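step 3/5: co-fold with adenosine-5'-diphosphate
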Amino acid sequence: MIKQPAALHIDNLVKRYANNVLALDHISFNVEQGDFFALLGPNGAGKSTTLGIICSLVNKTAGKVEIFGKDIDYEFSKAKKMIGLVPQEFNFNGFEPIEEIIAHQAGYYGIERHSAKERAAYNLNMLGLWEKRRSTPRQLSGGMKRRLMIARALVHDPELLILDEPTAGVDIEIRRSMWELLQKLNADGRTIILTTHYLEEAETLCKNVGIINHGKIIIDAPMRDLLDQLKRETFIFYLSEPAEQAPTLASALCTKIDARTLEITLDHQSQLDHVFHELAALNIGVVSMRNKSNRLEELFINLVNT
Ligand code: ADP
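step 4/5: write tokens
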């Protein structure tokens, strides 16, 4: 059986900017078809440079990039048509009706006017913007503008959708609705790559993760494997009744924050339900609990500092 080409194949990619900064130092990774892939890394790591090269907005110094088997050096326009990019910043004309914005974008991809209109209508409907089709971006809420960026990126029906920090600065409600939308697009078979600073986002959405630091890929792994590497996890427990002191637990380390709040740290082998059983046996009722910090973020900090 012939193996399907990867949605994205990057081999020994190098980028040295004119100021001699080596932004990418021979990076290689694949994103398989249908994947939901997170590209993570601290500021200045090389994420935007990588996305820029994939989308042919930045010239590479050396190396190979293929989109569904199409080499961007040799089959540039075929490769480009397979990608929809959602950039970080809004970059549309604030005064143009949004159905025109989308139809114009379709024009860039050589889609004829009448089918461009159809595509625009389809995408605006899918993204809940149909009622707003005659509005201009200036009249849209922040969340609607984000959806407009996605509607525009999808107008030529690309197989690979790339989003650069899709939920930067949006409130939790919009973020969750964006997540639902992206999950649906991925479930429909679209490969998605995103960068994010919200590590909970990567944890919720992504199947695989690449972590880039100082222009090198330091991790390329399934998200689950990465989370399994976490040694400890800390939870905050809110109690139904005040506790005089922190109970001693066999299954976890417990400290008291205040009369109704405990901090409970489990190592990776321990199970949360043992903690609940022990607390119940001690007649300590729990009203609610939360993760003290984002697990992936903790892991990320550990990786970058080692
Ligand atoms: P990230 O997106 O992970 O924050 P970038 O890809 O933007 O990282 O940057 C990687 C490195 O390349 C940084 O050191 C940055 O300063 C440098 N860099 C980015 N763009 C340019 C440019 N146009 N000219 C020179 N250096 C750049």
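step 5/5: annotate
The mean pLDDT is 90.
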